[in-house]
């Protein structure tokens, strides 16, 4: 059975996630507490849900779903998103992940979405389930010394909390001008504005932000 994970079951899901994604380093009680707080906060967003697969009353795996709004040829359409797909290590190879993804696809069909998207850790696995590859992403690495020297740095600032509204407006304008872009969500804004490890520089004229660089 697949259903929304109740708040009193989040600790079990966090334990599954910590073992499935050791790179997240959810190893201390403090990190587990922070992770739980993030999940509870995300659960308050009506466009985000956490689903779990249960067998005999035991949670064997889970996922997070997102209601994204995508720019499809200058029209906003619902696009389902999925992430944090995690399976109990003792129940690998039992088709837990497959059943979760199948449920995710059916869920967004019922919601009327024509598109779903994800970042795959195993492209071959999702390819077999009917997913196609997205547009090629080219990554370029440049040295700061190679950037052209401008006349002034007066419009360049570090992103501050007071810039949240202007930053979202900038991201929304970009979203509406580019086919395939997803509208930025509130928790993503939190990452740019609230988290100290996210360093973002913006180009600002008055109160308007016209561009940004995050690293």
UniProtKB/TrEMBL annotation:
Q: Which SUPFAM superfamilies match?
A: Acyl-CoA N-acyltransferases (Nat) (SSF55729)
Any single GO molecular-function term of the entry would be:
aminoglycoside N-acetyltransferase activity
Q: Which source organism? A: candidate division WOR_3 bacterium SM1_77
Q: Which GO terms describe its biological process?
A: aminoglycoside antibiotic catabolic process
The superkingdom of the source organism is Bacteria
Name of the featured protein: N-acetyltransferase domain-containing protein
- The signal peptide annotation in the UniProt record is none
**Domain spans labelled N-acetyltransferase:** 1-154
Q: Which Pfam families match?
A: Acetyltransf_9
Organism phylogeny:
Bacteria, Bacteria division WOR-3
